[in-house]
Design goal:
Order of helices and strands of chain B: HHHHHHHHH
Largest interface: A-B, 24 and 12 residues
Number of helices of chain B: 9
Distance between the termini of chain B: 46 Å
Radius of gyration of chain A: 18 Å
Radius of gyration of chain B: 21 Å
Strand content of chain B: under 5%
Oligomer: heterodimer
Helix content of chain A: 25-40%
Number of strands of chain A: 10
Structural class of chain B: mainly alpha
Chain lengths: 260, 256
Amino acid sequence: MSDSEETPRLRVTELKKSFGNKMILHNVSFQLSKGSSLVIIGGSGSGKSVLIKCISGLYTLDQGQIEVNGKVLNSPRNPIDAMQQRGFGFMFQNAALFDSMNILENVAFGAKHALKMNHKAARDLALEKLSLVGISRRMGNLYPSDVSTGIRKVIALARTLAIDPQIILFDEPTTGLDPLMSKKIDELILQCIRSESLTAVTITHDMSSAMRLGDKIAMLYNGTLIWSGKPDKLFKTDSELVKQFANGYLDGPFSFTNSL
Amino acid sequence: MNLFGIVGRSTINLLQVVGRISIFTYKAVSSCVLPPYYLKIFLKQIVEIGYYSLPVVGLTTLFSGMVLALQSHTGFTRFSAEGAVATVVALSLTRELGPVLAGLMVSGRIGASIAAEISTMRVTEQIDALKTLATDPFKYLIAPRIVASILCLPALVLVGDLIGIYGGYLVGVHKLGFNATTYLDQTTIYLQPIDIISGLVKAAVFGFLIALMGCYHGYHSGRGAQGVGTATTNAVVSSSILILITNYILTELFFV
């Protein structure tokens, strides 16, 4: 999957990962240019979360390599160094905000620790990022437990943006949200990607969200990328597996073994 | 399943656990020594472990001192050695009861709390989130708790010793009819610095074990609510057992 002739912002080559005897990812490869957005769809247990955790450095690779701006990132490696070297941001499925900190402290945390900003600069940056995603200054004093799941995800987006990443990885950003909130989160994500020319990899099984967010869509099935292409080609593909998943049909070749 | 298979598998499992704990301990100790240091988190832990454990430790040692005075008096009157009550209370508390009881009480309070907090962070991906924000969880979460626990336990034991001895004094003077001055003289006359120092060293070691086991079981907890519950139970059980075993080893090192 090549986006242009220029050096890709992110290139993943023949990535393999297994846990014990179970192979989770088989030779996954793709590349993305600056400002592009890839959405990876797939059923539960297909290896989507493992894939982005491997890319981010949270999991070590068994085989394969990851390049950012043409520079190969060594593996195995310390995930913390990896995050700093790569300029990755990661938005977690359940937001993963720190319970012990208020919203402002959550957003300022990355700026303080990853960008080594002083307290005031980190706070100002946090307020700026919160404002960017539409969270008022007044809400900054609330704790994550005081706000809804949707707002927590918006705050998690602000926290991810506050470390000034080049590449953002989204782990099911709209899972568990109502359709309106899902649309709102998608719009915010698109707005941030476009305004800052970020490269994004999103994993989801929410097809509406995938169609809104992706310049390209790829499907992961049993740890293998079986299809990739433009969103408008998704429903016209010859692949029965992809067609079945995209349309949500129960009858077809798609194996539910991994999901059950 | 044959006997050799069971023994072999159990041995491998045991070695794996020992290996995991050893690696965890090495990383935890390195994180305590090497920068960066998170002073704010450390001070918060000092308050949490030291200040908030004071009532529990105080009450435990107070009543232990009182019971010890009563029991030793009952026993010693059988061979006319009532005069040794104050000395026995002081020596028992400073050498053994103070550190062990404080260790066990703090293990229940703090070991469980550390394990529950860290395992919840693990389950809700907050530990992964720390890594994605360029923060080492060992330095941010584990090191401050271990250092705070090592420093707080001796302080708690010192205060607990004084309260326990006061408990013995209350019973000795007001219930058993000892002369107050004689009781205090008997308390201090045979008490040597090594009795107090050994108790404080034990407390520091117990503090390390409590925080280490809390952090280890929390960090390696399973998924979901059951994982958090199991981590909490394992932290308290393992640290309590380690406290009792280490207590014997340290006693032998100090006094034999």
